[in-house]
Amino acid sequence: MPFMTPATPDKSPPAKPHYHGHRDRLRERMFEHGADSLPDYELLELLLFAAIPRRDVKPLAKSLLAEFGDLWSLINAKPERLTAFGLSEAAVASLLATGAVALRAHKSVLIRGALLDNWQRIVDYCRATLAHEKEEQFRLIFLDRKNHLLAEEKHQRGTIDAAPVYPREVVRRALEVGAGALVLVHNHPSGDVQPSKADIDMTRAIVEACQPLGIAVHDHIVIGKGTVASFKSLGLL
User: Fold this and answer.
1) Cα–Cα distance list, 170 to 134, 161, 223, 232 (Å)
2) What is the pLDDT of residue 209?
3) Per-domain boundaries in the chain
4) Residue 123: predicted pLDDT
5) How many CB atoms neighbour CB 231 within 10 A?
6) CA proximity to 127, closest of 117, 114, 137
């Protein structure tokens, strides 16, 4: 049997997966041209890189946006929906943390100055907080006598079309916080922001409960998917 020279082992490093170069180029584009230069799916890719280091995440990013509709709905989705889609706990944590950071950044802006001097700041924050919610939620914004933010918190969460609110509980919490004024906020998951009779009756009951204690109710804001209604603007308050 003829003697055969053994093949020389290939000592060259293994080729990097194609998506490694893509990741580098994507980061460079963001640094050079800013985040506005990237479409939503590429921004989402950047979020997923650290949590999913060994996979081409472009198809995943596009699939997630198709499933959830937009970035804001995605990063504020329920954890179980994200894991059901096939995301790892690391990827879910990364997305949810991004949503929480964005909301806290919105809230930090509310603290600067008297809120009634810039009503749009309240509206923007309320839309960011509630527009993506699938269930009705009632929130309270507590202000001091100079209309600076004292606190903002969820008061009730209900079914898809109802969140029970009790005026005495609203007043009790306002007194605990030391509020001189309130802004009431709730969402309509249906998207229709027209106040219902129940909304109007509940608002009037809260106003009546607050009046003897000198607590003003500046407005009641209703948040829909793309629109906002104000009781004050509608002449209901």
Assistant:
1) 23, 20, 19, 19
2) 94
3) 18-105, 114-230
4) 83
5) 21
6) 137
Question: Residue 211: left (phi > 0), alpha (psi -120 to 50), or beta?
Answer: alpha
The contacts of residue 234 (CB under 8 Å, 6+ apart) are: 195
Q: What is the pTM of this model?
A: 0.65
Structure confidence at residue 116 (pLDDT):
58
Strand 181-187 to strand 216-223: parallel, antiparallel, or no bridges (unpaired)? parallel
In tens, the pLDDT along 57-67 reads 899 999 999 99
Query: Which range has the worst mean pLDDT, 77-91, 121-135, 219-233?
Result: 121-135
First to last CA, the chain: 101
| Fold of the 114-230 domain | Cytidine Deaminase; domain 2 (3.40.140)
Contact 150, 94 (CB under 8 A): no
